[in-house]
Amino acid sequence: MSKTAKVLLSLAVLGIAYVVYRKVRKSRTTTLVPNSTNGPQIGDGGLDTAPDIPTTVDVNYGCVSGSAYANTCTTINFTNPDANMGCCGRQVYNLQRGLNQLLSLGLVEDGKYGTATKQGHVQARQAAATPPDFPGVNFSF
Length: 141
Hints:
The protein is built from 3 helices and 4 strands, in the order H-E-E-E-H-H-E. It is mostly helical. The protein has 2 domains: 1-30; 35-141, no CATH class. It starts with a helix and ends with a strand.
């Protein structure tokens, strides 16, 4: 067999292998992994609650009397993230949880609206003009 025939045969085999690989890969179902880049995206609708995360959190979760996090928030200001700095409680926890599911940020879900939560909030604002549908979060403007 000539050298040219061997090269052409090798290319044909590689081409067929690539087509089979793409077909197998496309037919697989994607498993969502928490805190990864393949999580839910804006526009997917409501985000589901994971079974290993508590669905009810105390209204004052994360609040510490006499600290920077003593103001229990009843709403999250969507248009002005700075207005939420120092907020704490169930609203903030649910926001952190939603941001983690939506953007896979790896935020600590401690119920305290600090710098990292603010950065995630800003990213969500840049991605969509309207607030995401986070369970348990009441947005204000």
